[in-house]
Structures are given as structure tokens and as C-alpha cells.
Amino acid sequence: MGGRQAGVRAATKGSITLDFYYRGVRCRERLKLAPTSANQKFAANLRAQIQAEIARGTFEYAKFFPDSKRALTLSKVPGAAITLGPALETWLKGMKGQIEHSTFRDYDLAIQRVWVPAFGTRRLTELTRADLKAWVAERSCGIKRIRNLLLPLRGLYAQALDDQQINVNPFVGWTPRKIEPPKETDDVDPFGPSEVAAILESCDGQVRNLFQFGFWTGLRTSELIALRWEDVDLDGGTITVRRAKVRKQVKAPKTKAGRRTMQLLQPALDAIRAQRQHTQLAGEEVFTNPRTGGPWLHDGPIRKTAWQPTLKRAGVRYRYPYQMRHTFASTLLSAGENPVWVASMMGHKDWTMIVRTYGRWIPSVAPDAGQKVAAVWLTGQNHHNQGET
Q: Are residues 231 and 147 in the same domain?
């Protein structure tokens, strides 16, 4: 074994002790290294680095000795004494009155199922951007899912930096990215006119009213089941979308554009007038579950007890109920309606999403699209050729 150096000594056959002073306290920390000459030289260099950082005022105990009890008592950064699991749970409790119930539930699930198992015992100051990148690289889910899972962790670190519990936020200046193959299928798969007719002919009563109204308003399922009679103006032929029901919880629309007054097209107006005899007297939800007489709690019972049986009877290829919304948009656009007006009906803040999402459906139902401008071009060419002759 090598000779003893100042502040460095062999503790056992498998460890070396460093001895130094920090903030007026004598500190002895053990390295799990055999006290060979090379290892003692390494330990001496490490001690010299520690002393240099102490002199500069940049020393962080937890960076050198993360498992030491002194890392908690002597750290300049409060976050060095805080582990991620309890910190996330405390942060979430503080957010309860600031976020929607459904968002709170999503964050809680992410914390309990993802972050506590992955990093729950880490201290706030220990989690690095490299750790986060490695975690992202191991995920098989899409980037949107990854970013949603990161939201509570991102929120905790933003608050910790603001509260001066940490000096560095690993999320600042970083957005997770992942190369994903292009989707082979598209989520937009609207029903054709004959399919809509077959669906409506295969149901009756409240179920038919619900589906007909859905096909001709483009409301999200959560908006359909939250619509109340106080939101309906039959004389004016309008409805006002003020709320949505998600996971049994009623909430306001996410955006200003989501809260909207819609002029009802005739098929939708017919459907809601037919619904009056079933629920208007109660003055609460417009559409209720005919099996229970109570409100639809979420879209699950609609799919299982009404939508799936109806499509099976109609002999129509199955698509989920949200395709009623896609059908409404593609039908309006293919009929030549103004995309800006369609966007307002759908509750989008501008028309760009409408064109990006549904524009490609227009040529399939408007085979002469582009012919008008082509005719203008040909006319101009003919005039040009005649001028040359």
C-alpha cells in the first residue's frame, strides 16, 4: 500500500477515508476503494478538488457524496435533502385547486406508476437531463404520451427552482424528442352519407336523437352528454356549448373558442325537438341513458350499450363515436362551406387545423376540385396563342 497523504488514510482493506473541513465541520467520508498507491493518489486528488471548490464557494456536498448524511445537513441547496417521491406528492396536493379533476388524476397516475418507481428515491438535486434523456430513449410509446407523463415532473422542478430549492432545472431549454415512424393509419375516418343513413335507420328514440344530433353538430362526446336544456334556444335554433363531462366530472371548455354558440342545421334541430318529450320536462341533461333514466356518465356506456349494437345492426364497419365529429366536419367542407365558419362550429380557435386535418377529404367527394382554376389557365393560354397568330 502507498504512504499516507494529508487528509487521506486507509480505513480498511477495501476503503479509504477522506478528512476535510467544510463550513466549520470536520468531515470524514469513506471511498469504497482498496488503499493501493494509485487509489490513494486518486483520493488525494479528489480531496484537493473538494478543497478548491470549498475555497471558491462552489462545493456541493451531495455531488461528491450523495449517500452521506452530511449531504443533507451541510448542503447549501435545500433540494439536496428532498427526495423526489414525497416532493411530487406534496407538489400535486398544492396543485389540486388549480387544475381540472381529470388532469389531477392523470398527474397522480403518472407520479405513482412512473416517477416514484423510476426516480422516487432520488434527491431533487440528483436528477439530471442525461437521466431524463435516457428515460425517454427507453420508452416505446409516442412522443405525445412521453411529454404528457413528464408534465408533473416538469411542474415540480419549475416550482423548486422558483423556491430556490435547486440551482439547476434540468428541463430548462430542453424538449424531449423522439424519431417516430409515420403513422400507417389516420385517426380521421368519417362515415359516408349512406352509412350515416343506415346507422340512423338502425336505432330509434333517444339513441337515434343522440346520434343524429352528434352527426349534425360535430360536438365532442363529452360535450354531447354535458349539454343541458338551459343551453338550448329552440326559437333561435341555437345551442351554447358551455361545459363538457370527462370521467364523470363536468368542466368548462379548455379554450375560449371551445365555448361557443352554434346555429343548428335542420337535421340537428329535428333531433333535439324529438328529444323534448324524453327529457325537457326535467330541465337537466338533454340526452340521457334510456336504460337507466339517468345522465350518461361518460362515453363508455354509449359505446357498449348503444353505439356498437347499432353499427352491428346497420352492417356498418365499426369506428368509434368520435368519428361523428369527423363526419360533420368533412361533410361541411365537401359541400363547399367556408373553413373559417366550420372551425367556429367545431370550437377551434382558427381554420388552419380544419384544413390540415380534413382538407384531404375534399377531393374524394368533389372530383371536379381544381377544374375552375384550370379552366382559367386554359382560357389565358388560348388568348395568348391567338395573339401570337
A: no
Residue 212 belongs to what domain range? 193-365
Q: With respect to residue 175, please indicate whether it lies within any of the assigned structural domains.
A: no
d(CA 253, CA 80): 40
Does 328 lie in the same domain as 230? Answer: yes
pLDDT tens across 206-254, in order? 999 999 999 999 999 999 999 999 999 999 999 999 888 876 677 776 6
**To which H or E segment does residue 20 belong?**
strand 15-22
138-144 contacts, C-beta under 8 A, 24 or more apart: 139/178, 142/178, 142/180, 143/176, 143/177, 143/178, 143/180
Secondary structure (DSSP) of 325-376: HHHHHHHHHHTT--HHHHHHHHT-SSSHHHHHHHGGGHHHH-TTTTHHHHHH
pTM: 0.56
Cell reading at 6 = 494529508
Together in a domain, 224 and 314: yes
Question: What's the number of domains the chain is made of?
Answer: 3
For residue 51, is it within any domain?
yes
Residues 6+ apart with CB under 8 A from 233: 239, 240
- Rounded CA gap, 315 and 349, in Å? 37
- Predicted local confidence at residue 234, as pLDDT: 93
Angle CA(168)–CA(80)–CA(137) in degrees, nearest 5? 55
Q: Are residues 227 and 256 in the same domain?
A: yes
Q: 267 with 330, same domain?
A: yes
Q: Are 81 and 229 in contact (CB under 8 A)?
A: no
Q: Are the CB atoms for 329 and 342 separated by under 8 Å?
A: yes
**What CATH code is carried by the domain that includes residue 98?**
1.10.150.130
Does an H or E element contain 8, and which?
strand 8-12
According to the model, what pLDDT value does residue 283 have?
86
pLDDT > 70 in the chain, percent: 84
List the one residue out of 319, 340, 329, 321 whose CA is nearest residue 365. Answer: 329
| Cβ-Cβ contacts under 8 Å for 131 (sequence gap 6 or more) | 119, 170
